[in-house]
C-alpha cells in the first residue's frame, strides 16, 4: 500500500507540475532515506492543493524580524493560498534559531528545509525552491519586513498584465516615470515573479533575495513592472 501511495504521489506531481518536478520529488524521498539529516519536511507539499503565492526566505540572507513578519502575514490569512519556504543554513544565529523554533512543525504552510555547510548554497536553495507550490514566488530584501497589502499589490499587477513576468516594489528615489535603467535595483524591497519564469531564471543559482533577482531579471531583459513603495504609479 505504501508503494502504491508513493506511485500516486509521483503520478500526481508529474500531472500537476511536470515530469522534471516529479523526478525531483522522487529524488528527495530517496535522499531523505539515505541521508536523514538532509531529508525534506515530512508532509509532501505535492499532496496539497496548489497555492497562489510562495514566499522564499533564507536564514543566510534574512533576519528573524523578516521571518516573523512574513509568518504573521500568512497567519492573519489563515494560511489560505500562500505559503513560506525557508532555506535554513545551519548553524543559524540565536535570534533566528528561536524564530525557527517557533515556526517549525506548527503549520502546513510553513516549509523549513535545513542544510548545513556541507551542502553548497545553490543546492540548498534548489531544495527549498522544490517545496514552493505557489503559482507565483515572492522574494524580499534582506532587511525588509513586507506588508500583506504590498504583496497583494504586486500580485494584482501580475494578474492584470499577462505581458509581464515579474513585478517589483522599490524605493521611490527613482521618481515617477524613470526609465528602467535609472531604477535602483539594489533598493528592490519586494519582488513577485511567475513561478515558471522564476524556475527558468533560477537555474540552480542562489537567488533567494529580491535585489539579486531584480538584477538578474534586468540583465536578462525579463519584462518587469516597477512600482514605487510610497506611490501607486508604475515606474516603467
Side by side, the strands of the main sheet go 3-2-1-4-6-5-7
H and E order: HHEHEHEHEHEEHHE
Query: Over the alpha carbons, how many angstroms does the gyration radius reach?
Result: 18 Å
Decide which structural class fits the backbone.
Answer: alpha/beta
Number of strands: 7
- C-alpha geometry: globular
- Ranges where pLDDT stays below 50 over 5 or more residues in a row are 35-39, 42-47, 173-182, 232-236
Most strands sheet: 7 strands, mixed
Give helix % range: 40-55%
Mean pLDDT: 79
Keywords:
19% strand, alpha/beta, seven-stranded mixed beta sheet, 8 helices, 236 residues, disordered C terminus
Set out the fold topology.
Elements: H1 2-17, H2 19-34, E1 51-58, H3 64-76, E2 82-89, H4 94-103, E3 110-115, H5 121-129, E4 134-140, H6 148-159, E5 166-170, E6 188-194, H7 195-202, H8 210-220, E7 224-228
Parallel strand pairs: 1-2, 1-4, 2-3, 5-7
Antiparallel strand pairs: 4-6, 5-6
Helix pairs in contact: 1-2, 3-4
Amino acid at each position: 500500500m505504501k508503494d502504491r501511495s508513493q506511485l500516486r504521489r509521483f503520478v500526481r506531481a508529474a500531472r500537476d507540475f511536470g515530469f522534471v518536478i516529479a523526478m525531483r520529488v522522487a529524488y528527495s524521498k530517496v535522499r531523505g532515506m539515505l541521508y536523514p539529516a538532509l531529508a525534506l519536511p515530512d508532509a509532501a507539499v505535492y499532496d496539497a492543493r496548489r497555492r497562489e503565492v510562495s514566499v522564499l526566505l533564507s536564514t543566510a540572507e534574512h533576519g528573524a524580524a523578516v521571518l516573523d513578519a512574513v509568518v504573521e502575514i500568512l497567519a492573519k490569512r489563515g494560511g489560505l493560498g500562500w505559503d513560506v519556504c525557508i532555506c535554513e543554513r545551519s548553524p543559524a544565529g540565536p535570534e533566528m534559531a528561536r524564530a525557527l523554533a517557533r515556526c517549525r512543525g506548527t503549520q502546513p504552510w510553513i516549509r523549513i528545509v535545513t542544510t548545513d555547510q556541507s551542502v553548497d548554497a545553490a543546492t540548498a536553495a534548489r531544495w527549498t525552491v522544490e517545496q514552493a507550490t505557489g503559482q507565483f514566488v515572492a522574494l524580499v530584501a534582506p532587511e525588509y519586513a513586507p506588508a500583506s497589502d504590498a504583496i497583494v499589490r504586486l500580485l494584482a499587477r501580475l494578474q492584470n498584465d499577462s505581458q509581464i513576468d515579474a513585478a517589483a516594489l522599490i524605493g521611490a528615489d527613482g521618481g515617477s516615470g524613470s526609465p528602467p535603467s535609472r531604477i535602483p535595483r539594489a533598493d528592490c524591497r519586494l519582488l513577485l515573479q511567475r513561478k515558471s519564469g522564476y524556475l527558468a531564471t533560477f537555474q540552480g543559482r542562489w537567488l533567494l533575495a529580491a535585489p539579486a533577482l531584480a538584477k538578474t531579471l534586468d540583465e536578462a531583459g525579463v519584462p518587469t513592472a516597477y512600482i514605487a513603495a510610497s506611490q501607486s504609479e508604475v515606474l516603467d
